[in-house]
Automatic annotation (TrEMBL):
<keyword id="KW-0378">Hydrolase</keyword>
<dbReference type="InterPro" id="IPR011059">
    <property type="entry name" value="Metal-dep_hydrolase_composite"/>
</dbReference>
<dbReference type="InterPro" id="IPR032466">
    <property type="entry name" value="Metal_Hydrolase"/>
</dbReference>
<dbReference type="InterPro" id="IPR006680">
    <property type="entry name" value="Amidohydro-rel"/>
</dbReference>
<comment type="function">
    <text>Catalyzes the hydrolytic deamination of guanine, producing xanthine and ammonia.</text>
</comment>
<dbReference type="GO" id="GO:0006147">
    <property type="term" value="P:guanine catabolic process"/>
</dbReference>
<comment type="similarity">
    <text>Belongs to the metallo-dependent hydrolases superfamily. ATZ/TRZ family.</text>
</comment>
<dbReference type="InterPro" id="IPR014311">
    <property type="entry name" value="Guanine_deaminase"/>
</dbReference>
<feature type="domain" description="Amidohydrolase-related">
    <location>
        <begin position="69"/>
        <end position="425"/>
    </location>
</feature>
<dbReference type="GO" id="GO:0008892">
    <property type="term" value="F:guanine deaminase activity"/>
</dbReference>
<dbReference type="GO" id="GO:0008270">
    <property type="term" value="F:zinc ion binding"/>
</dbReference>
<comment type="pathway">
    <text>Purine metabolism; guanine degradation; xanthine from guanine: step 1/1.</text>
</comment>
<protein>
    <recommendedName>
        <fullName>Guanine deaminase</fullName>
        <ecNumber>3.5.4.3</ecNumber>
    </recommendedName>
</protein>
<dbReference type="InterPro" id="IPR051607">
    <property type="entry name" value="Metallo-dep_hydrolases"/>
</dbReference>
<dbReference type="Pfam" id="PF01979">
    <property type="entry name" value="Amidohydro_1"/>
</dbReference>
<dbReference type="GO" id="GO:0005829">
    <property type="term" value="C:cytosol"/>
</dbReference>
<keyword id="KW-0479">Metal-binding</keyword>
Amino acid sequence: MTHAIAYRAAILHSLADPAKVGLDASYAYYEDGVLVVADGHVRDIGPADTVLARQPADLEVIRFENQLITSGFIDTHIHFPQTEMIASYGEQLLDWLNNYTFPEERKFVDAAHAARVATLFLDELLRNGTTTAMVFGTVHKASVEAFFAESDKRNMRMIAGKVMMDRHAPDYLLDTPESGYADSKALIERWHNKGRQLYAVTPRFAPTSTAEQLSAAGKLLAEYEGVYLQTHLSENKQEIEWVRSLFPERKGYLDVYDHFGLLGERSVFAHAVHLEQEECERMGESDSVISFCPTSNLFLGSGLFDLPRMEEHRIRVGLGTDVGGGTSFSMLQTIAEAYKIQQLQQHKLHPIKALYLATLGGARALRLENKIGNLEVGKEADFLVLDLHATPLMDARMNNAHNLFEQLFVLMMLGDDRAIAETYIYGDCRYRRDQRQTAV
Ligand code: GUN
Ligand code: ZN
């Protein structure tokens, strides 16, 4: 057993969805709190005097002044191979894919390239306080091998999968129903539940898979307990029309996935910006999940996601950056854009609700709420030390904030990677800002 360490600072974490239990019961805040970590798990948490009184007197205590501990951020949709093409100019989804994305993804035929980008990508997640993500690879099996090898080395809880794509992309990026199935199967056997790694069957989106391939994806889900599905859904109006023309026998976009058995409690659909009423109902009924990707929806001009509407249908929603369609790795920046998207629709996004979406809500979206998402006793110790005064402007504004909600809101509107002082994975510090390096 590793020895326990206590971290003393202000501590804030999410306990439940404010929409379900009300604001006050949805979070815990300790102005002078202690988090005790041992063997990669949370052993104790609470007000400093209470926790220290019940722990051994010789407990090692690390104290942070003016900083806030919270649980790690969870990004429910991101593409690691698009790291070096983020911020590509001028196009909406389909042209953006053809002109920028596919040529970039071609580079991942080279395993050394994939390993280098996986390293850069995971470092960037840590710098931004993201401790778990649901990640697309490319069509190349080796891209996902490289990703899991790096993630496993850092002991990060990650979900990833090889893209299945057998039509409507350049030849150099296509697999076949048979090879897509066999490669995915081999990756599942090797990586699913190895350490903290989990596998997601990953048909890119309906237009780039034949019926045979979508059927193979459904077969994999039926064959392996606990494996996820990730794909894209109703992101862009032209895309939706294209799906209708490719699958005229289906009721609509979601029905294509439904037909092949791809809906369910571990199925995460990115975007879902333009869902019909009937599709919302089917999402809720099948307990399928949406990843809301604000910076991407704005950057690619896709549309405005209506969060309250999805909640009315009892659909679980997580937040995603969708890099490189999204423009930031920072979940704080992602929250800021989510707030503005709700503003444009006359909806409010309370900072405590935003914290929920970026942590426990993300964990619930990924059915990992028993392991991660907050700092309750027994959870895996993925947590952050946040610097609320990271820049001169944040410092000045924070000193003019009068309560916790205001402070948290300022953090979310002005904060980014500069506000992440330290990132802990399974109890180990894997990133410390002031050393400007990652300890792996
Ligand atoms: N739809 C299909 N592929 C992609 C992708 O790589 N990014 C986004 N944002 N949407 C997609
Ligand atoms: Zn995406």
